[in-house]
Amino acid sequence: MTNETTTTSPIDYATEGAVAIISLNRPAQANAQNKELLLELDKAWDRAAEDDQVKVIVLRANGKHFSSGHDLSNSNAQAQFDKDKAESGMMKLYMHERKHFLGFSRKWRDIPKPSIAVVQGSCIAAGMMLCWPCDLILAADNAKFRDPVVMMGIGGVEYHGHTWEFGPRKAKEMLFTASSITAEEARELGMVNRVIPLEELDSQAMELAQQIAKMPAFGLAMAKRAVNQTLDIQGQYSAIQSVFDIHSIGHGSAVAQCGFPVLVDLEKLKQAGKKPQE
Length: 278
Description:
This protein has a 7-stranded mixed β-sheet, with helices on both faces. It has a single domain, classed as 2-enoyl-CoA Hydratase, Chain A, domain 1 (Alpha-Beta Complex), CATH 3.90.226. The chain has helices at 35-50, 75-79, 86-109, 128-131, 162-166, 168-177, 183-189, 201-213, 217-233, 236-258, 266-271, and strands at residues 2-3, 11-16, 19-24, 56-61, 115-119, 122-124, 136-140, 144-146, 181-182, 194-196. The chain is globular and about 50 Å long. Helix 3 (86-109) runs antiparallel to helix 10. The chain is an alpha/beta fold.
């Protein structure tokens, strides 16, 4: 196994045979996503995609939680906007999110190599935008999935996989209530392929990855394209793009109300037991 990492990197990258292993590496922050993490993650996906020796990509996370979503620890300072400049501010925000959230998720989804997300603990809001682009999702028996951003005045995260992954009524219940979906519920709904005891999660993920890696690379790429193209013909990509625009309207509403595009009441989240890094 080769491993080329630095202790300060938000992403670890390793290979084991024909499998690339990408690990989120901000465990102290429950792998909350800041700009540096997303840029390094994109580089890791590119590295795996361009390596002819790699046939399967595994996305996992160090620590107790897969990802607590966007890093909101300094959201107000980063996102403060003058109401008089709301139009230019919203354009900058729209372009930023289109590239780093919607764009990255779409790009990773279409990499012509099978990918496996390995999820433990909390997978909150933007955390699901990391696992949804993967072809398979393996979840630990302690995994929970939640998107509480309706509490922030926004209708859901930027990459709207909810309807496709959970079905329309469960998606609405999840968004309307900010409640969690367990790993077993996610499996029953078809979002998760397998639920695995936490202590066996990584080993079983690697076993599956190595099994897939025995298949011809071109056959795997074509099988992936066949399924993804079928989803797109059914309207998945157009729907996700249109819902991203709805998401941006939510940010615009927040600008109109309080002058910055991320309307986050962290105290309200804590009182409701929905801490971002829970």
